[in-house]
Amino acid sequence: IIAMNSTYTELMIFTTNIPTTTRIYSLSQNPAYRNHETIKGYMQSPLPDYYLGSGMATPPVPNVVYINSSGTIQAENTAFGGGVTVDTNNTGFTGAGFLNFPTTGGYAEFRNLNGGTGGSKTITFRYANGASAGARTGRLLVNGVAQNITFNPSGSWTTWANLSVTVPFLTGPTNTVRLESTGTDLGNIDTLTVP
Fold it and tell me: What is the structure's pLDDT at 68?
C-alpha cells in the first residue's frame, strides 16, 4: 500500500514479507478500474468491477487483445487455472517462472495469437518432464479444436526440451492455444513460440 501521511509531507509504503499463491492480472487491465483512472487519476482509482480482498473469488479474465502477438511468449503471462501454479524451484527456465500442472483439471490459455495470413503454423512449447513414469499426455486445443499432446521425458526437471506441433491458425491476432491436463499431468511449460 502506498499512501501520503496526514500532512502530505511523506510518502508511506507498506508491504509484507508473507508470500502469496494468489495471482491476478494488473488492475489497469480491469475496465472499471481503468475508467476510474481517467476520472480522478491513478492514485485515487479504487474501484474494480469485482471484490478485491480476503476470500475473493478469481476475478474475471479481461478481454485484452495484444496486437500481432507472436514470437516467444512466457507461459506465466497467460491465463491459467484449475490448480496450475507458477513455480521457480527447477532451474533453467526463462522469465519469472514456469507453469506446473496438476494431474487433471489444469489449463493454460495463450490468447490473441497472430496467425498472419492463416494456414498451418508450427508452434513450439519449451518444457521439462523429469517424471520417472515417462511421457505425459494431455489435450491441446487450437481455436477450440482438440487433439492429444504428449510431452516425452526430457531427462530431468532442470533439462528443458522443445515440442513442436503443426496446427491450423486463423488469419490475424484471433487465435487461442489451450493446454489441459487430463489425467497424467503435463510437462512443466516455460514458453510457447509462435512463428
Answer: 46
